[in-house]
Design goal:
FAD/NAD(P)-binding domain; 6 helices; 25% helix; 3-stranded antiparallel β-sheet; 14 strands; 6-stranded antiparallel β-sheet; D-Amino Acid Oxidase, Chain A, domain 2; alpha+beta
Amino acid sequence: ADQLGLLDRLVGAQPSLVRLDAGATEALLPALRPGYAAGGAVEGGAADIDVAGLHQHHLRRLRAAGAEVRTAAPVLGGERVAGRWRVSLSGGAVEADVVVDAAGAWADVVATRFGARPVGLVPKRRTAAIARSDVPVGAGWPLACDVEDRFYFKPEGPHVLVSPADETPVEPSDARAEEADVAVALERVREATTLGVRSVVRAWAGLRTFAVDGLPVVGADPAVAGFWWLAGQGGYGIQMAPALADLVASLVLGRDAPASLAGLDVGALGPGRPRGAPPPV
């Protein structure tokens, strides 16, 4: 009953979701164990993103616009010299009028190297694995997520991608999957389905970085001139990136926000905003 109430609240808050009864839920995803689902919801307009392909597309556009991309060049620090930034890197230095801190899980760390105050970002580990299935996997099956966000799974070729939907606070690092988290994902998907997922083809983990209120941190630092934030995108970084990049570019250049973001309360995302309570579960 509690989960059905949560489902109804979710559907009420998201107009794109369509409520399903138990039979329709099982028909949409035949891999569900009979009797497991009391109901569900579907977002018909959802689609999968080729994240690696989209990332490479953005990099190509960046380079085509004249940008230089440096890798393996950690930021050691920055100082203001005659109204400009001199940024020390492991392989030299660069100068710029403004700096945008888009360092993901390391954004707070980088900020301190420019004299800015950390905003309290917390990197959280998310685990995923590709598992073999005991039964044929339907290519047209949707991604399925537990309404309490305890796990999710989706087709991945002949196999199944599984995740325990973990959010383990960690220090900024090169995240790696923990065996215990992979085991939890497999157990929960086995409980919910007839897929019989047991053996793992490969597993990995990534970091999803959050402010305490769950909102991105976007805008000019309130105390350090020429220092801008673009961080805290949680689990939706690749989806938010184009819009937030347009927004930050407009702010830095002193232009109006893009028309597509009209009505957005930019101040609610700023690094100087009051720190609210964590988002509701």
